[in-house]
Design brief:
With 622 residues, the chain is of the alpha/beta class. It is built from 27 helices and 10 strands. It has a 6-stranded mixed sheet. A two-stranded antiparallel ribbon has the order 5-6.
Length: 622
């Protein structure tokens, strides 16, 4: 190897004015929702540990730094080639684009723009470039400018770039928006550091890459914990048995995902042993909850007495009983989060909202001596509680991201630890009934620029509930799918404020009211586009003699059909639902402001039925 240089650089220093090409060995961008959500959560938690709303922006200079890992660069003639690290750098670029678009002032935007692209002779050139894939640059340009770009027929990288940008939109914490956003932008580019390892030939760069990812690969926290626990088992036969148990469960977890073994151990230790969590103030020290998250192998070693690890028998039990029990049920829960499982649907629903905090909370009440039936009851009660909590928060425009919810979830986890199913249902019901904000508290809930995915999720749940209660098979998986081959939010009112100027004096008032959830439905993407300009009823202008929406809806899902009077004549299952539930369904020959208000009230009552806190009692009073 001729020469190598390693230096710590901020994101500004790394990306400012530099051009990187993405080497063919690293070309595909493959990050998923999990990785982008974890990146945002980690950044948010570390920023908020230093941030105070009373601070001047200049105080950001003294906020704590955050280390984001290393990248390997081959520095030859022309653009520097990224040998290792394009997943993080592409993801950071997407995050910078998102923040750029949210910042209101040109001066604030300018400092980010320089880190995203350069411009020469009127042509934009992104700092991360793949010349052989021009559609990637076109996609990035569309995201930067806000122009539409269909997620159809593209290569893997472009599809993932579009998907991860959407994840950033959906997952970006409320606490970082508005007033905090310029502070966060400054901190991100100045205080988030990477180690840039530079070689001056491809051969040397690949040697470094292979060394760091193969021969020189450090032990993971999981492997270090395994080594510590096994080394404290004196009897060789017991040690071999414990090792086999460990290997079996780790293999099952890694079958789900690359980092699931570590996530499972964190969830287990937090659920059963975390006594405290960092106070929500600057300079507070990390406690059990955070220490388990950042180094659970060290935490176990330092808390052996608390964990009851005083002798060889204890270490054997810790692996063969505790580790085996909780990782097995973690695996079971994670699979229910990936695939709709009868009786555990709420776990899947929570996972669709990227609510990763549910895993330690779900494990918290489980005990070794529980029967499988009791464990399933506990999982249903806790996941239903979380489902209700999440739906209520979404409806009342409260954040559900990791940094916002971790303190509340720690308290919940601590309070339900080891409880019976009966105790669980009673305790969690009391918590929900004591909350001041329910669906009725926000009778103007509507779609806006930041909650599209969540409104889609609510509508999918409502649509599916109406159909299953009417005796139809569930189509939730179909309704909840977005994008190509999926469903989109349909506005009952076409975007023509002039058709409603008798009730709205200004187009902005019409636009705000049009987005109320009572004026929304779900329709297949291809059909939604074809219906967009149709009038609803005969009271609206129809110069092109288009078919009326109220008639078109009759061929769609039951929530859409409920607007048409024929549904009340020809659908006995739906008529039975209306009679038994008391929900104020009725047909609407026209759709005026008062009609939308009626549908708004209907949707509120429907939400209160789906997410009724008393559903928790069904598990103990079937």
């Amino acid at each position: 190897m001729k020469e190598m240089r390693a230096e710590a650089q901020s994101i500004r220093a790394l990306l400012g004015g530099a051009k990187f090409c993405i080497d063919y060995y690293q070309r595909e961008y493959r990050w998923g929702t999990k990785q982008i959500a974890e990146l945002i959560d980690d950044l948010a938690v570390n920023f908020l540990e230093s941030h105070d709303a009373e601070n001047e922006r200049s105080a950001v200079e003294h906020y704590d730094h955050y280390f984001l890992g290393s990248i390997i660069i081959s520095d030859k003639d022309g653009p520097k080639a990224i040998i290792d690290g394009q997943q993080r750098l592409t993801s950071l670029t997407l995050l910078l684009i998102y923040i750029y678009r949210q910042l209101g002032e040109e001066e604030q935007q300018a400092q980010l723009a320089d880190l995203i692209f350069s411009q020469k002779y009127g042509k934009r050139s992104f700092n991360l470039d793949v010349p052989e894939e021009p559609e990637r640059a076109i996609c990035m340009d569309a995201l930067f400018t806000g122009m539409p770009f269909e997620n159809d027929g593209h290569n893997e990288s472009v599809i993932n770039i579009l998907g991860r940008y959407k994840d950033i939109e959906d997952h970006f914490p409320e606490k970082l928006r508005e007033e905090a956003l310029p502070y966060f932008a400054d901190w991100l580019i100045e205080n988030v550091d990477l180690i840039k390892i530079t070689a001056y030939s491809d051969a040397d760069a690949y040697t470094i890459f292979e060394t760091t990812n193969d021969r020189g690969l450090s032990l993971t926290p999981t492997e270090m914990l395994k080594g510590y626990l096994l080394s404290n088992i004196d009897n060789s036969e017991s040690r071999n048995e414990a090792s086999n148990v460990w290997r079996k469960h780790i293999a099952a977890l890694q079958d789900i995902g690359k980092e699931e073994d570590a996530d499972a151990i964190k969830a287990w230790l937090r659920s059963q042993y975390a006594k405290n969590i960092r106070e929500r103030k600057r300079d507070a020290k990390p406690l059990d909850f955070e220490q388990i998250g950042t180094g659970f192998h060290r935490w176990v070693r330092e808390n052996g007495e608390y964990l009851g690890l005083s002798g060889s028998v204890d270490f054997t039990r810790f692996i063969k009983e505790d580790f085996a029990f909780y990782t097995r049920w973690y695996e079971y829960i994670r699979r229910a989060a990936e695939t709709l499982t009868k009786g555990l649907e709420a776990i899947y629903f929570n996972a669709q909202n990227n609510f990763t905090l549910q895993y330690p909370v779900l494990l918290a009440p489980l005990r070794h001596d529980d029967s499988e039936g009791e464990i399933h009851r506990k999982l249903r009660i806790v996941s239903t509680y979380l489902d209700i909590l999440i739906a209520r928060r979404i409806w009342n425009s409260h954040a559900i991201d990791y940094s916002t919810m971790q303190y509340a979830m720690f308290l919940t986890m601590r309070d339900i630890r080891g409880k019976t199913s009966s105790e669980l249902a009673t305790l969690l019901l009391e918590r929900l009934l004591a909350e001041g904000e329910t669906f009725a508290n926000n009778d103007r809930f509507r779609l806006h620029g930041m909650n599209g995915r969540q409104v889609h999720w609510l509508l999918a749940r409502m649509t599916d509930h109406v159909e299953t209660r009417a005796g139809h098979d569930s189509r939730y998986a179909e309704y909840s799918k977005r994008g190509k081959g999926g469903y989109e939010i349909e506005h009952i009112w076409a975007n023509h404020p002039e058709w409603h100027d008798d009730e709205f004096s200004h187009p902005a008032d019409f636009s705000e009211y049009r987005n109320h959830i009572g004026g929304l439905l779900l329709l297949p993407k291809i059909i939604n586009a074809s219906y967009s300009d149709n009038p609803y009823g005969n009271d609206e202008p129809n110069p092109k003699n288009l078919e009326l929406k109220r008639d078109l809806y009759y061929s769609q899902n039951l929530l859409a059909q409920s607007l048409n009077e024929e549904t009340y004549k020809n659908n006995p299952g739906f008529k039975r639902l209306v009679q038994e539930s008391g929900l104020p369904f009725r047909s609407h020959n026209e759709f005026k402001k008062s009609d939308l208000d009626e549908r708004q009230k209907l949707y509120i009552k429907l939400a209160e039925m789906i997410w009724n806190p008393k559903n928790l009692l069904k598990e103990i009073n079937p």
